[in-house]
TrEMBL record:
It is an enzyme of class 3 (hydrolase). This is Alpha-galactosidase. InterPro entries: Aldolase_TIM (IPR013785), Alpga-gal_N_sf (IPR038417), Alpha-glycosidase_related (IPR050985), GH (IPR017853), Glyco_hydro_27/36_CS (IPR000111), Glyco_hydro_36 (IPR002252), Glyco_hydro_36_C (IPR031705), Glyco_hydro_36_N (IPR031704). Keywords: Glycosidase, Hydrolase. Belongs to the glycosyl hydrolase. PROSITE patterns: ALPHA_GALACTOSIDASE (PS00512). Its EC number is 3.2.1.22. It comes from the Bacteria.
Amino acid sequence: MGIKHYDLEPQNAHAAKCVFKLDTPNTSYIMAVVDEDNFLGHIYYGSKLKDHDVTYLLRTGEAPFVPSKNNRDKCSFMDSFPMEYPGHGLGDYRDGCIDVISQEGHRGVSLSVVSHKICTGKPDLTGLPATFGGAGHCTTLEILCEDKALGLVVTLMYTAFEDVDVITRSVYVENASKKDLYLTKVLSACLDMDNKKFERMTLHGSWARERHIQRQKIGFGKYAVSSLRGEPGHQEHPFMALMTEGASQDAGEVYAVNFVYSGNFIVQEEVNQFDSVRLTMGINSEDFCWKLGTGEGFQAPEAVLVYSENGIGGMTRTFHDLYRNHLIRGEYKDKKRPVLINNWEATYFDFDTDKLLAIARQASELGIEMLVMDDGWFGNRDSDNRALGDWQVNEEKLKGGLDFLVKKVNKLGMKFGIWFEPEMISPDSDLYRNHPDWAIAIPGRRAALARNQYVLDITREEVRDYVYECVAGILRSANIEYVKWDMNRPLSDIGSAKLSADRQGELYHRYVLALYELQNRLTEEFPYLLLENCSGGGARFDPGMLYYSPQIWCSDDTDAIERLEIQEGTALIYPLSAMGAHVSDCPNHTVGRTTPFETRGYVALAGTFGYELDVTRIPEEDRKMIPSQIAMYHKYNDLVRSGDYYRIASYRENHRYDCYAVVSKDKKEALVTYIQVLNCPNYHSRRIYLKGLDPNMKYRIEGEEEEYYGETLMKAGIQVKNLWGDFKGRLYHLKAVL
């Protein structure tokens, strides 16, 4: 495992000078430096190889040959060679990764390898979240490239992990010339390879139905998933997987990319005239232009590459292990989260100290461990039309003040949490009346409202400091142990009163950097704080946010049946420990559906688990079920949080039932969740084939006496009796017989 460099014989028959080979436990990633111009070509990514010199795969020994042998057809070479990091405008007519405008207005980039270095561990990316790992966990390769004509230096960074099958990539660009350069495109990763009759998997949706899985056969042309919202958004997701035809949960090849970034992105698959595939990922180049003065640099975010020869499930478990062990940080990285109750759907804006304490008293008696006070506690915030930015406690609502309320809640044996939306400003607020220029807007245009609010220009230091002190000041004033950080609208009307005309194209990215700085400051000052990110639900459910908060609110839609599809798409990439999931009231506030309280608990168990309802007003039958649900959470959460996730059946696909399992790393314990969405008349028991067990271990299902080998449970299956009614569920807890 690790990274190795091999020099090849001079005048190699395939015009390759040296090879770089990156190995993870089960995969290899190979590239080579080619011809007199030192082009960096991608050779291979897939199952682990013993050989390193597979440069014949570059096809440089056939027409159009390398430029030193056939310069008259250099354009043909550029347009077909599998580039590791393609430039722009110089003969490669596929979409490239980097584009620069010179001071003279010219465009065109071609990179040549100059040098490289290999080091143990993984350096941080300045100002950006990224996966981490020290010596013994990963090895990093830096390949220094240049475009002499531009005076541009580009460092390609690769990290190969030693405990998980992941390659990460990022790029650093520097202006080594004496003139200004304008970087108009800088992606983070490219993967050129032959088309294996690939199918594409992506995630799409909208508010309250995020991350629905879409699967399609690829064809000639380009297919992109992207965002220009200043965040990934509810609609698209920074992820794409290319799979061999018919790939399933358990078989087939999968090439996947995910972006450690919380702003505008693009991931694109392009099939060219030769049936070759180019997969690229990075910051969306639309509305992006970064000025590089002499000596200035730009750090691109990190892209995560995963290859699985064990189907979609193998990809999923690789992402989960990477993010749990090498991205999520802090106090709650490997820790059970407190069971909370949030008052939003219980009260909306209609609450005061007495109402919150009534909820807390009842909740504490039932075993709930934290009260979270949501929107409406500050300024004159009695609706979502005003007061964002005025982060002063409304003591007409909270009589006695915030500290009084928190102490009362703490005396009940409960922790206390609070909601913020720090990046926003209402037109009807003291802050906007005093500082209208603090809102992002284009001079001369009336900025568009969303949810009757504007976005604060946190790229400005004075605005950023104000925002931080608002949040930190409240946290210092009382024993607050949890923060829900929300963002309820995308960016628009992109203009900053502080940026010069030639830097306005930097605003989108500077905004994300400012967000990261704010959350980094918060986690450093309050290291034991449980931070949960949110953006109108799941619009910022991305790896960048997971670097600062161990959990993210999955969706504002808490309906158990809708959550099956939302959570299936989310768990495709992200560990269950990261998914904010609650039991909510019925009829559900989003879709009006009524589902059994028991089933709502089973679905929320595949996440952080909590409650979103008025516990003082729900039916007594439901209220009595809460202690047993909390006991269920405490019994299984260690397994759910750290085990391997297996998708057994998908309601999205079969339209009848959903089933998934979590299996402990040692294979000695498993929890299977079965949800019967729609009952079927005149039907026998349904056979479920379990996954992930040790075939040679014997298991007993809790509540039953029989013992079965894992092989039997996986190959022959178990029988699930038809449950009476729709929206019913059942858990199967298996333990190895030792």
